[in-house]
Each structure stands twice: as C-alpha cells, then as structure tokens.
Amino acid sequence: MTWLWWASLLASLPISLPQALWTKRTALRLPEAAGPQTGVAGQALAGQPFRLLVLGESPVAGVGVESQAHAITGQLAQALSAHLQRPVAWRALGKNGITARQAAVELLPQVQDDYDQICLVFGVNDTTHFSSLRAWQQGMDCLISGLAARSAAPIWLTAVPPLQHFHALPWLLRQLLGWRAHLLDRALQRLVVRRDAVHVNAEVPFSGAYLARDGYHPSALGAQVWAQALMQQVASRLTR
C-alpha cells in the first residue's frame, strides 16, 4: 500500500504540488492558546487529584482556541473529572508543527513528574512532512519508551486524524493526505501491539462549529466532542 501511495503522489504532482504551494501561501495561521499550560478541573470535588499529561502537536498547543481550558487537554480533564468524580490536575505539553521524532528530542526531556494518565496526540505533521512509516514508528516508540521510564501511567495514543476531512485543504490534497494519514495510523496500531499502550480511535465531526476559523484545527466545541469521545473509549480502563 505504501508504494501505491507514493506512485499516486508522483502521478498527481502536476496538480497536487501547485495546490500544496497555494495552500501554504494562503492558509490562515492561528496562534497557540494563551494562558497557563496547567490547571485543575473539578476543583470542588473531593479526593486526591488525578494527574493528566497530554503531549503532542498543535491541538495540544491550543491552536484554534483562546485558552488551554478550551483545548483538548483542558476539555479531556473536564471529561475525566466528571467520569471519575474527583479533581484532575492537567498539563498540556505541545508545540505547533512538531513531529513525533522532534517531540522525542524537544518535549520528552520536559517530562519530569509522575502521572496517572498520559495521552499522546501526533500524526498530522508526520503526515504533511511525508515522514516515512519507519521514522514515524521510531519517533512514537521513543516517546512511549521515554515516558514509560519516567512514569508508570497508562499511555493513550490517539488515532492519526483523517486529513481528508480538513476543509482548509483542496480536494485532491485532502485525499492524498487522508490516505497517508491512514497508513500512518495503521503503523501506529502495529506499534501498540508491541507496546503497553492503548490506541484510541475517536470519531469527531469535521464540519461547521467543530472546526476553528482556519478549517484545519478543532474549535473549542470540536475539542470538547473529541475529549468526550476519547474518554468514552477508555472509560472502562480508568481507575476511580
């Protein structure tokens, strides 16, 4: 399947390359979320806070929303707090445009504390940077290994987002990148089989109010729906 994708990319270059250059030049670029990268959801609830770390690319950095409380980490913390009925102390560790390999070098050393749950959100940048499947798996493997050495927390790996639904991209580019994202997600699922981690495939609408103004990143509502779907996928594995 990988060779077929590369063959399709090469055959489509007369159309897809101008589309890619036009998109790069005209795409709306939104800033990362303002405000603190840590917080506590459900502060009024009793009990020891459940410690959550979310590490990843632009959605974790909060691109598309005003504050981290409205981004995927803050929204996931709210969903977990409601499910567990206890406070959730969260930290968002993200960077816009980063790949898994880069995160293993730049973000992983910043993880020093222990956690009760860790969630990794990667794949879009490795898709758009045309990372090889081997480089993608190696980057994610380094992240999983490094995090496991720092914390005994269970690790969730979110599915690679389906780029064929990203409205900011022209149709042909969406199809090519959506196909590539699917190949990376298949590789991620194979990696999870060899590692003590959980692959979480949460269905999220990619239209209207669920997308930010750039048609590329999740809005606050999109992040909320995504967080609820993630929590429901792994609710049975959570310890109250």
Notes on the protein architecture:
- The chain has helices spanning 2-26, 58-61, 72-84, 100-106, 124-128, 133-150, 171-194, 220-234, and strands at 38-41, 50-56, 88-94, 117-121, 155-158, 198-200.
- With 240 residues, it is an alpha/beta fold.
- The protein has one domain (2-8, 54-237): SGNH hydrolase (Rossmann fold), CATH 3.40.50.1110.
- A 6-stranded mixed β-sheet has the order 1-3-2-4-5-6, sandwiched between helices.
- Helix 1 packs across helix 7 (171-194), helix 3 crosses helix 8 and helix 4 runs parallel beside helix 6.
- The radius of gyration is 18 Å and the shape is globular.
- The relative contact order is 0.16.
- The mean pLDDT is 90.
